[in-house]
Amino acid sequence: METFDMSAKELLTTRRAVLAGSGVLALGGGAAAIFGAGGRAPVVAGTDTDNLVLKAGKTSAPLAGENAEVPVWGYNGSVPGPEIRIRQGQAFEAMLDNGLDEETTIHWHGVRVPNAMDGVPHLTQPPVEPRDSFRYAFTPQDAGTFWYHPHQRSFEQVGRGLYGPLIIEEADPPQVDRDLVWMLDDWRLNDQGQISGGFGSRHDAMMAGRIGNTITINGKPSAPLIARPNERIRLRLVNAANARIFGLDFGQLDPVVIALDGQPVEPHRLTDPLLLGPAMRADLIIDLNDPTEHSIRDVFYEGLEYDLSAVICKGEPIRGARLPEPAPLPSNPLPEPRLPSAKRHQILFGGGMMGMMSGDGGSMMSRNRSGSGMMEGRMGGSGMMSGGMMGWTVNGVSATGHVHDPIITVARGETLLLDMSNDTAWWHPIHLHGHSFRVLSRNGRPTRYREWQDTVLMAPQERVEIAFVADNPGDWMFHCHILEHQAAGMMATIRVN
Fold this sequence. Notes:
Residues 68-171, 179-294, 387-496 form the Plastocyanin-like domain. The protein is mostly beta strands. 5% of the residues lie in helices and 36% in strands.
């Protein structure tokens, strides 16, 4: 993808040793990989948010096809949960009703919400007890593609299906014939076609994370997308997987990228596969031309490439000629970082297996001041590293739980420049709550688009500089969004006073 300093081809070649060590080359549990069979889930119609209730509970979904319902967790009985569409600047309220047998929360990923609405257990709110509820209310400043998911034991709650799309619409959206959301996910199914246990295993946490063997789009195996000549589609892609990185090759479709992580970017065509780490999003404009069939392939994992989906263009043209080239989306009201006066901080991500322990290696400290004992690092009773050493670090410290002393404290309105180094053999999508940031450089070379993002994918041994104005007060999570890495220590807090 052009927004990366290295080309996607160069980035993809760095992962061969990582895959060999992680075991993802054998698609777990002995189950056959299920790619592209069956139908694609229809996008749920825009939700009336006047009295919106999101009930988290157990349900089922046709992960392997219409005749293969699998027990999952979902919101309002579906995976993904309801597609919420609201207008930029529209006051929004939603009631979380917890129908699970354990605590939960909702985090509104990428949305610049007030700190009390951020859904981080113990840090911004008490976790919601079973059969209890919690009201979220905020007014979104930014238009774009966002999503919602729990932050309580997220490695399992998200991994079992608790997530949904949140679309905040522009006041003057671009002209398209269809606006589609694809929530991409993978699932680890066993030989019986059920979700495998072992959430939070040490192997997953210390290597590539929980990568599954079954791919879905909107909770179902993909089915071809049927379109007509001269049709224009806005395709909103959301990576909802725990750990899988998608590297999407669109072949001759030649889409135009118009937004990343919900934030507008200079429209540009892809010259390399589109890389989406967990939690990342991309908005594409796809113009169909002559009647033909196109494959969208996921080529990230070497030797495991597959057809994610197909787009079939057929029938009578929808209009007499193609629409003009897409114009840039209107900018969101993000304050521009003031780089000359920025407070510069070095961030070092370390840990993991394969001999890449950073800093003080085996003598890693552990950070936790919750006092509640609610440590996500315990991995929900799976035994993963409970009472033992955590494996991932931020500046040499491996965090437990969500509440700990901040690594950075900054006055509201100041610009932060984070010089981040990935001193590990693994990929890490690094997410900051409450803010979006500009990606300034990769390995010392300026990015072409200086794109705004809230989650930046770092390759092994890569250095990335980001900058943002710390204008949203509170304690904000800063962590790897491979959920097993987060639970095993790769998280910190940035405090804005």
